[in-house]
């Protein structure tokens, strides 16, 4: 008798989307110059209230970055929000009519920049009250040979008990069924988009220069007749 066929289902999946800004060098140089100048002005552009997430040796700007009129900021905003819109459209499988209505949805965005210097890191955290989050890399900073894990963007496994017991029956399961965190080494011009519920952290940075990133959170305000989106 032939064995019964097995049907494997993938559940609890989380998307992480990457996009690259073409010819990002000029824009990133402009952003770096602007951000270092704003950092030098001190409290005027620093986030005024203390963040609940553990941060060490990091300058964190106010959360209104995408509202700044500076041309480099607006170029970056266009790139990031265009990538987000295409991600939302694709992953929600919107119909042509829903795509038209999506243009009427109000998008709320908080955006800020980080400048991280030697020894700086950000503890594990999520972004509540948002559906999507993003990180854009302006300058990844140096990765010293002695510190290969310097300045990584790390996503711990979202299933906290996945590796509670390891034996030969599960130790070599192939992706996406394996377990363990996912690390991204940021590169200049790289954008990562991910659901805001995914916990993440920035590992300690040991470069002699600086690591500069832009982060943002997005939420969509449902207009009248929001049932057209299945909401």
Question: What keywords describe this structure?
Answer:
single chain; 231 residues; alpha+beta; Jelly Rolls; nine-stranded antiparallel beta sheet; globular
Structure commentary:
The protein has one domain: q2cbj1_9rhob like domain (Jelly Rolls), CATH 2.60.120. The chain is 19% helix and 28% strand. It contains 3 helices and 9 strands; from the N terminus they run βαβααβββββββ. The protein has helices at residues 25-40, 71-92, 96-102, and strands at residues 17-20, 55-60, 106-125, 132-139, 153-155, 182-184, 190-195, 200-202, 211-221. Strands 1, 2, 3, 4, 5, 6, 7, 8 and 9 form a 9-stranded antiparallel beta sheet that branches. α1 packs across α2 (71-92). The longest helix has 22 residues, at 71-92. The radius of gyration is 20 Å and the shape is globular. The termini are far apart. The mean pLDDT is 92.
Look at the structure and name the CATH superfamily: q2cbj1_9rhob like domain
**In sequence order, what are the helices and strands, one letter per element?**
EHEHHEEEEEEE
Total number of domains: 1
> Which percent range fits the helix content?
10-25%
The tally of beta strands, per DSSP, is 9
- Number of helix segments? 3
Radius of gyration: 20 Å
Based on the coordinates given, report the CATH architecture.
Sandwich
**CA distance, first residue to last residue:** 48 Å
Q: What best-fitting shape do the alpha-carbon axes yield?
A: globular
Topology:
Elements: E1 17-20, H1 25-40, E2 55-60, H2 71-92, H3 96-102, E3 106-125, E4 132-139, E5 153-155, E6 182-184, E7 190-195, E8 200-202, E9 211-221
Antiparallel strand pairs: 1-7, 2-3, 3-8, 3-9, 4-7, 4-9, 5-6, 5-8
Helix pairs in contact: 1-2
């Amino acid at each position: 008798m032939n064995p019964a066929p097995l049907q494997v289902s993938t559940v609890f999946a989380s998307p992480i989307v990457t996009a690259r800004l073409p010819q990002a060098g000029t824009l990133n140089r402009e952003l770096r110059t602007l951000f270092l100048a704003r950092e030098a002005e001190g409290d005027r552009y620093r986030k005024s209230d203390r963040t609940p997430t553990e941060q060490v040796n990091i300058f964190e700007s106010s959360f209104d970055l995408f509202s700044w009129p500076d041309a480099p900021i607006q170029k970056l905003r266009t790139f990031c929000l265009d990538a987000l819109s295409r991600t939302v459209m694709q992953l929600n499988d919107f119909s042509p009519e829903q795509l038209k209505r999506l243009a009427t949805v109000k998008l709320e965005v908080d955006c800020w920049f980080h400048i991280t210097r030697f020894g700086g890191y950000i503890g594990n955290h999520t972004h509540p009250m948002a559906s999507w989050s993003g990180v854009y890399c302006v300058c990844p900073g140096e990765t010293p040979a002695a510190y290969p894990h310097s300045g990584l963007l790390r996503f711990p496994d979202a299933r906290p008990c996945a590796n509670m017991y390891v034996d030969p029956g599960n130790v070599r399961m192939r992706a996406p069924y394996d377990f363990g965190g996912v690390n991204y080494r940021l590169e200049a011009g790289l954008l990562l988009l991910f659901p805001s519920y995914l916990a993440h952290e920035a590992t300690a940075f040991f470069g002699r220069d600086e690591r500069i990133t832009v982060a943002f959170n997005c939420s969509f305000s449902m207009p009248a007749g929001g049932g057209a989106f299945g909401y």
